[in-house]
Amino acid sequence: MTVRQLANNEGFEALALPEEDRVIDGVYIGDLLSWVMGRAKADNAWITIMSNINIVAVASLADVACIVLAENVSPEQKVIDMANAKGINIIKSALTAYEVAVLLSKNN
Amino acid sequence: MDDLLKFTYAVDGDNFTSAGQASVNVKKNLRQLGFDAETIRRVSIAMYEGEINMVIHAGGGNAEVFVKDDCIEIVLTDNGPGIANVEQAMQEGFSTAPDNIRSLGFGAGMGLPNMKRYTDSMTIESEVGKGTKITMKVLL
Lengths: 108, 140
Fold this sequence. Notes:
The structure holds 2 protein chains of 2 kinds. Chain A has helices spanning 3-7, 33-39, 54-62, 77-86, 97-107, and strands at residues 12-16, 27-29, 45-48, 66-69, 90-93. In chain A, α2 runs parallel beside α3 and α3 packs parallel to α4 (77-86). Chain A starts with a helix and ends with a helix. Chain A is α/β, with parallel strands linked by helices. Chain B is built from 5 helices and 5 strands; from the N terminus they run βααββαααββ. A 5-stranded antiparallel sheet of chain B has the order 1-2-3-5-4, with helices on one face. In chain B, α1 packs antiparallel against α2 and α2 runs antiparallel to α5 (111-117). By secondary structure, chain B is an alpha+beta fold. In chain B, β2 and β3 (71-78) form a beta hairpin. Chain B has a single domain, classed as Histidine kinase-like ATPase, C-terminal domain (Heat Shock Protein 90, 2-Layer Sandwich). The radius of gyration of chain B is 14 Å and the shape is globular. Classes of the chains: A alpha/beta, B alpha+beta. Chains A and B meet through α2 and α3 of A and α1, α2 and α5 of B.
């Protein structure tokens, strides 16, 4: 599934999709940034409720396909601007982290 | 051994939101030089953890990246408070980061362990009250 296809699901909203054709391979869920950086794999969808600006750098360094902000967590505009500038996809979802992961599992 | 290339960055200690710019920049440069994805990932994550440490604990510092024949070397230097007990600081989960840093998702005591995990060698030279110098190598 591509990042765009995920964002098109009901209950999802694309906040920044500079690389919308990236294909999602696997999921990582976590909020401790150092932990995520050390464990997430390239092309994972990273599901988190952390929304501060550092998530953009973490996503870039870990090379994840996208950040999915669960449970309608909303970042500040500067986070979205930075994501667009750095080529990082951010999607917001009304679902819980678990529900997003289940949806991705069914579609992969 | 000659350095084939050197990148130097000043890490701004007052600006936590811009932390990571040096590592993201290094990642971009290494990608342009054609290094493999795993090497780039290891170098940039190790460097980012170091950058964050310098911002949290030392009021900033300097980061240098040397591209050599056989390795990529990262040297992080700061004039911060130093590390009183390096062995303790190397333990996963040990952290002296304040609560406001933890609320941002850092300060989990993973920084130095991650830096060691992602590099082939890491040396810490630190003196309390003077500062810290960390040298990391990722072999090619």
